[in-house]
Write a structure and sequence with these properties.
With about 525 residues, this protein is mostly helical. Strands 1-2 form a two-stranded antiparallel ribbon. It has a two-stranded antiparallel ribbon with strand order 3-4. β1 and β2 form a beta hairpin. α1 runs antiparallel to α2. The longest helix has about 35 residues. The chain starts with 15 loop residues before the first helix and ends in a 19-residue tail after the last helix.
Amino acid sequence: MTTATNQTGDWLGHPKGLFVLFATEMWERFSYYGMRALLIFYLTKYFLFSDAQASEIYGSYTALVYVLPIIGGILADRYLGSKKAVTFGAILIALGHLTLAIDFSPSHHQYEQTVSQNDPTLQLFFLALALISAGTGFLKANISTIVGNLYAPDDSRRDGGFTIFYMGINLGSVIATIVCGYLGETFGWHYGFGAAGIGMLIGLVTFLAGQKHLKGIAEPTQPKLLKKKTAGISTEYWIYLGGLLMVAVSWKLVQNNEIVGSLLSASIGIMSVIIIYFALRKCNKVERDRLFAISILIFFSVVFWALFEQAGSSLSLLTDRVIDRNLWGIEIKASQFQALNPAFIIFLAPLFSILWVKLSRRGWEPSTPTKFALGILQVGLGFLVLVWGMHNAQGNEPVAMIWIVLLYFVHTTGELCLSPVGLSMMTKLSVARIASMMMGVWFLAAAAAQYIAGLLSALTGDKENSVGTLTTLAKTKAAYIPVYSKMGWIAVGIGMFLLFIVPFVKKLMHNNKPMATEQHQEPAVTAN
């Protein structure tokens, strides 16, 4: 694919195309996080699912959101090109959000009935999730690829460009959770979902209108192949039909949590066998050691994200039920607390960047596995801080807001230790011959973490009915405290174990220097 290197007509020292992609991604993340802020409440308060059922649906959906970009990325790289993939994905996402914006069954607002699996309203809801999942599969990985192609591999502006781009992610997340959360919880869920859909449409229009600034770098890699016809249909339209098939499969999977778990388990098992075989039969000692180092760190990343991603499920429900959300006489909506994490990232990321540079100059910067361990320790500490706060609230007394704010703060500092080095570690240590496959394994692990997050969330709160069983604050707190205590202490234990084996992992990494034959790939600043 062509790489843009011409610096004429740049803005603020960067290609103008960067700011087109910044705005596109900001609005896409607005749509995703706006919908995510409301999803668990919509499931429990509108469809009256129990906490456990809602958490499992949430986990299946978010797992699909992270695994489908593997397929979308392959199709874009080999056939569609990033422009067509992003456009198709954005259309599917917008359709999903706008489907959620239709209020077919207002009676559910009155908590008068539970919803049958055959209820057409529920099936439309699952279709909306499937559209968003499949659309994200085509969009998520490919827009980052375009950012990388704006710069030559040795362009000193590259890291700064990615920093600007990922600020768009977090800015969109902050605005979305505040705006969509307020609209959804104040005027009705469908207003919040509708705002998310409008955000995606704005992002799509921005992307298409700004193509002149991308200078053709997002065009198809093999345009002649796209036009080749089979059974009277071009390859391009076969891919779009395949995308609709992806929607149909996702529609089935999102409502069958056990099938999603089985598929993830089977996929991880197969990939593990392939990695072990390749490491033992196709690699020299250094390559083999590095593959094992990557595999170890991927496992620990699953632990981190499975706990961190409670934010959109169990932590949101807890915030709604036991946290005193009144600030200076104004009640903050429970969904709006999800804005804390991206807001902290915007504030703290530059400080962490400066900190790592200063520590590096003195030879004190923690190694990659040490940063992973620090991240896991902090995600565990966040839960223990919240448990401490819940213990301090006696009986039916609500929990002070400061404790949930502190949890998000500590979780964000943990994220900034682990997330920025995640994909960077993958690109440095992967064997060039299977670099793309290992990137797929990274996304597969992220999907597994989302699925496990749903299962963990299902252990908290109300097991039977989200509006009828836990009748007092005391009972509600008592349902969350033991689960969060276990999560916290287990995470601390796993973090300490990783710290203990850091010398072993560092030895496997062989100084963490990239292979001479390895091609540059893009780093991740956050997991968003």
